[in-house]
Amino acid sequence: MRSLDSVFLLAHAGHWAVNMAYFAPVIGFLGWLGWVEVRGRREKRAEQREAAAD
Amino acid sequence: LTEVLWVAHGIVGRSDLPIPEWLFGWAAAVVLVVSFVALAVLWPEPKLSRAGFKPLPGLSRVLLSRPLDLLCGLIGVALLALTLYAGFEGSQTTTANFAPTFVYVIFWLGLVGLSVLFGNLYKAFNPWRAIGRAVSWIARTAARTSMPAPLAYPERLGHWPAAAGIFLFAALELAVSDGDAPRTVAIAALVYSLIQFVGMALYGVEEWTERGDGFSVYFALFARISPWSVRDGVVGLRPPLASLADFRPLAGTVPLLAVMIGSVTFDGAAEAPIWTGIAPDISDFFQTIGLSPESALELTFLIGLIAAIAIVYGFYMLGVRGAQSVGGGFTATELSRAFVASLVPIAFAYAAAHYFTLLLYQGQAILTLSSNPFGFLASNPLGEASTDIFGTADRSIDYSVIGATSAWYWMVGFVVIGHVAALTLAHDKALTIYSDVKLAVRSQYWMLAVMVGFTSLALWLLSQTNQ
Asked: Would the CB atoms of B29 and A29 count as touching at under 8 Å?
């Protein structure tokens, strides 16, 4: 059954890939936001370390 | 009506679009990002909440005059009475009866557009407010003494009764199997009327109407998009959206907006393969635990509706949590209320885009139904309408009023303009509440994510009607 599921998944790729295409900007944007968030936290930690060293 | 709704929701045959439909989603996201950058650069101070008000005293004297107020109230009461009578006594064929088309198309959809264009018209035509005011006046006159003051409206109740009212109406439309039957519509209108009278008796006509009456709150929110406004009893003009920037949310306002957007979302998603694929399985499960097929299907659709509302609410709160993480010392509740007005243009975009063709097509049926509101046919072999008040009883719907491709562009236009308006409102509000412009702009990264998410969802939902 598992192999049959894979076949269905591949056979219907055209449908779900098009559906996913609608949400690609959201996924891309959230990825970018996550990256900005992580970078901001790293910079904040670096600033705190520098302040502690001074 | 169900068959008509199905066709009118789903514009079939958009084969001549120059690019794939999903690419419109990408283009819309680009428009939002460009708008965001433009706002960050060109809009450094709050403008909407500080916008002025241009009074129009001459127009006020006419629009807010007692005779016109009375006439509008009477029209509202007459339409309610006609809806009730047609629903109970008229033909029980949905498309032949005035009540379902009037309630679900003209009232529920048509008034949204009119509110956005011309302001809070519904307040004048609200039949329950008109009856409440009339009863109050009669009681005061008969008693010849001042009436006991109504109870103070509890702060924690806020917009919760309105949210519940709109949710129940959406459930009637989308989950109840005979929700479009004339008798069901009439019973619902009667029950809603009784609730309004109890609410007004307890808390006062104006207080209840402005906070607890679901339809009043619903149309008043859309009316805040319009440039028309009433201040200190004078009609005037403000820039569009300015009245939303001043909006003071109450407890339950965020759930109300989630219901407004979530119900349209579910209406669209219910036609999508993702729902039509799983709904029978959920329904089968409920049948295995003893529910009848009809009840099982109704419960399935109710769960779908609640899930759609929860997703919309959850996605908005995700954006709020993100904005909170930027700093500024605000709680999630404070931020969720601060930015909730920006959901109103999104709710309009969803309603306008999703129901645009339904309003254009099925809206024409009101001309036919006005001539023969009870839907009775003469007992002759031709089966003609028994009454033809305005001579339009045999008029048919003109489906060529708009082409499929034009309709698609209109719908995409509604979605993009609605979300750019929402972004503008959120940006303006952020500049008002954050002391640091940099923090305000950073908080809007998250609101931009919310807007892009809602835009993508809206366009995906519209595309699903063409599957």
From this structure: yes
From the list B26, B449, B457, which residue is nearest A30 (CB)?
A: B449
Judging contacts by C-beta atoms under 8 Å, the chain B residues touching residue A30 are: 449
Cα radius of gyration rounded to whole Å, chain A: 21
8 Å CB contact between B355 and B415: no
pLDDT band (50, 70, 90) for residue B10: very low
The letter for the amino acid at B423 is L
**Whole-angstrom distance, CA of residue B140 vs CA of residue B134:** 10
pLDDT tens-digit readout, B347-394: 999 999 999 999 999 999 999 999 999 988 766 666 666 788 898 888
Residues B371-390 as b/e (b if ≥16 CB within 10 A, e otherwise) read bbbbbeeeeeeeeebeeeee
Concatenating the DSSP letter of every residue in B188-228 gives HHHHHHHHHHHHHHHH-HHHHHHHT-HHHHHHHHHHTTSSE
Residue A18: partners with Cβ closer than 8 Å, 6 or more residues away:
B20, B22
> Which of B431-452 are b and which e, b meaning 16 or more Cβ less than 10 Å from the residue's Cβ?
bebbeeeebbbbbbbbbbbbbb
Chain B hits for A15, Cβ within 8 Å:
273
Q: What is the pLDDT of residues B429-464, one digit of tens each?
A: 999 999 888 889 889 998 899 999 999 999 888 888
Per CB-CB distance under 8 Å, the chain B contacts of A24 are 26
Distance CA B456, CA B467 (A): 17
Strands across the sheet containing B234-237: B54-55, B234-237, B228-231
Please state the length of chain A.
54
Element (H, E) at A2: helix A2-11
Is the per-residue pLDDT at B13 higher than 70?
no
Q: Is A22 on the interface with B (CB under 8 A)?
A: yes
Tell if the CB–CB gap between B29 and A21 is shorter than 8 Å.
no
CB contact under 8 A, B26 and A30: no
**ipTM value > 0.95:** no
**For residue A28, what is the nearest residue in chain B, using CA coordinates?**
B449
> What is the pTM assigned to this prediction?
0.90
Q: Residues B340-355, buried b or exposed e (16+ Cβ, 10 A)?
A: bbbbbbbbbbbbbbbb
The single-letter code of the amino acid at B255 is P
Tens digits of residue pLDDT in B302-355 = 999 999 999 999 999 999 999 998 888 899 999 999 999 999 999 999 999 999
State whether A37 and B22 contact (CB < 8 Å). no
